[in-house]
Amino acid sequence: MLRACSVDELPPGESVRIAGPEPIAVFNADGELYAIGDTCTHQDASLADGWLEGCFVECPLHAALFDLRTGLPSCLPAKQPVRTYQVQVDEGVIYVLADAAEDAA
């Protein structure tokens, strides 16, 4: 389980990046928390730097759009999904349920 940040540090419409061998982006989409692989599957870009549109994030490089709920791309140029992760809030802290191998920053 990876600590992302406190709930207060991630207001609606914002994101945070968890560094590691497989970076993870955590989003607050209108009060719902989502975590996905941070790297766009089309080209190396941080999705945490992208733009939120409802439950979708737009890659900042080439505008590929990913569904935060499923990780599936909804338009080109991305064709492969990003990984999704479960998110848990405990005592005001946001955690991402990820493998221990990914817990290295």
From TrEMBL:
Alphabetical list of InterPro entries matching this protein: Rieske_2Fe-2S, Rieske_2Fe-2S_sf
Superkingdom of the organism of origin: Bacteria
CDD domains xref list: Rieske_RO_ferredoxin
Domain Rieske: 2-96
Alphabetical UniProt keywords: 2Fe-2S, Dioxygenase, Iron, Iron-sulfur, Metal-binding, Oxidoreductase
Broad EC category: oxidoreductase
Assigned EC number: 1.14.12.19
Molecular-function GO term, any one: 3-phenylpropionate dioxygenase activity
Protein's name in the database: Bifunctional 3-phenylpropionate/cinnamic acid dioxygenase ferredoxin subunit
Organism, scientific name: Amycolatopsis halotolerans
Taxonomic placement: Bacteria, Bacillati, Actinomycetota, Actinomycetes, Pseudonocardiales
